[in-house]
Amino acid sequence: MLASIKTNHLTNDGQKLGMMYFRVAIILFGAQLLLGLVAAIQFLAPSFLFEILDFSVARMVHINALVVWMLYAMIGASYWMLTDETEHEGVHMGLGKLAFWVLTAAITVVVLVYLIVQVGPGTEASIWLIHEGREYIEAPRWADIGIVVVILIFYWNIFATYMKGKQTGIMTVLVADLLALAGLYVTGMFFTDNISMDQFWWWWVIHLWVEATWEVYVGVLAAYALIKLIGAKREIVEMWLWIEVLMLFGSGVLGMGHHYFWIGTPEYWWEIGALFSALEPVPLVAMFVHVLYDWGKQQGAAKERGEAGSVIVNGPAMTWIVLNAFGNFLGAGIWGFFHTLPQVNIYTHGTQFTAAHGHLSFFGAYATILIGMMYIGIQGAYGVKRMKATFNSKMGVFLTAFGVMGMTIALTIAGYEQVLVERAELGGTWNAYFVAQELPWYIQGQLWRAIMGVVTLAGFIYLVVDMLTIGKKAQQDEAQAA
Ligand code: HEM
Ligand code: HEM
Ligand SMILES: [Fe+2]
Description:
mainly alpha
């Protein structure tokens, strides 16, 4: 991917800009994993890097890098699809490029400040200059405002191109969804000193992003990718896309109630949250069935036409996208449903169980498909018709997925122990928390999470090596075949 900066075959600015976003995304993904490992080691050896890189900072950078790399990859994928879907050249791409550099410079400064200023009082000045203390979206206010400006430019690029070009169903959903996605960010920006109110609005970003707008966005990517990779019929994927939009927005919006159980909001949220969040997995299952059904159907149709074997034009991209269907279903659907009813959540709330769900859902629902889109980008950048999976692609996907699944299981076991001992047996007191942290199931769970984290990192290294080399290899294969 990096090797293609100079020699890429891309002729349009939208796709070039998309690749720029992908490159930064993958670097931030690497940083996310390294800081995750630091935090994981600190669970086992609390004095590790104490006062050099504290747990609070390692954790903060870990999850903020996660959100930012995913947003970068989403912007990248949007620019990538834009010119292709609309069949029109990107409007005001020069401005888009400028916005990219401004955003990247701002993020570098923000991260450096996080690392340099590790402790200190929370004041009006620290909210403006250091961070806001809102989990996942901690950018200081100056950066918040900058992000809004940059996103407006990005949105203008997308919207103006859409208006001038072909308006496919995929593009219409994308344009509407991005507006909702960007608009929600604003709800997490204003300050109130009432913690319940602050959390109430903060969930509008966090929950409505991942359980509504991001999920719809994934539907857009899946629809686009299936058309590109296996020639899926546009009518089929677009029909499902519209159904998903309806269902996800419906269940996602009121499903937000599952975060309003214990933060001081009225008790009627218990019933609303329980019912609608329990319905949330329905569209996920539909998406899962739909992706595999479509794929099987296409395979069958190809065989009928006498085309032997697979018709997949990009092996690694397809693998990651199929993994997305499974991962979304498991991480969000199953691990989410586990703890979504208030009767269960009163015991599991904020235990390692939550972290287990957080890891599998973010990885399964988003990391997978975004990596798939990067492979589609690489194929385009090298101008090859067919890109087969290499040994590195396979090791990359296998070790990363195995590692994340391993971490999830380890954390689920640690969370189970917390539920039984800390919550059920000892009544969830301050003391109970510390008793539960000392027990073998918890400590071993943390140890296995760290080990599986290393496996994940090893998978990531294979992935990066593959991204740097697969394009050239596919070119050589194609030259040989000709
Ligand atoms: C891809 C979609 C999803 C992602 C990325 C995701 C991610 C997360 C994350 C990171 C948290 C922890 C938030 C915190 O720091 O407090 C969380 C909490 C939670 N999620 Fe999800 N989630 C998704 C879908 C779902 C679904 C579909 C359900 C229900 C069926 C669900 C149920 C919950 C519940 C109940 C909590 C609160 C846990 C607690 O009480 O500590 N999630 N989710
Ligand atoms: C090298 C691999 C990784 C390691 C060692 C690791 C470790 C950690 C640690 C120690 C925390 C803090 C948990 C706590 O406060 O109890 C954390 C939080 C989190 N990580 Fe990771 N992580 C890794 C990879 C990932 C990946 C690949 C994703 C998603 C794509 C991810 C998503 C998250 C999320 C969403 C949270 C917040 C969870 C919550 O508070 O509920 N991590 N991680
Ligand atoms: Fe939620």
